[in-house]
Amino acid sequence: MDAFLRLHPEDNVLVALKMVEAGTPISIDGRDVVLTDNIARAHKIAASPISAGDVIVKYGMPIGRATANIAVGRHVHVHNIRSDYTPTYSLRDTDGVERKAS
User: Could you say which architecture CATH assigns to the domain 4-100?
Assistant: First the structure.
């Protein structure tokens, strides 16, 4: 698994060490997975199944919660997690208009 790194043994995400393209086969903890997303360098993928509401752990520390179910090998980023610790400064409604969060 030379393309991804687990930063701490308790992490449920892996960090990409380089750009990895969708369709790339990898092995995560003995489980063979084919990536369905392009993963940019320094972005995260799920190392194990993560359910909506589960805590995301990176560096052995909680960094936020899943807002949707995330399968093994799927991209973990702002589209499917939210921070419990950092305020959101803007929101984008379904009409695409950006508004300040209150």
Answer: Roll (2.30)
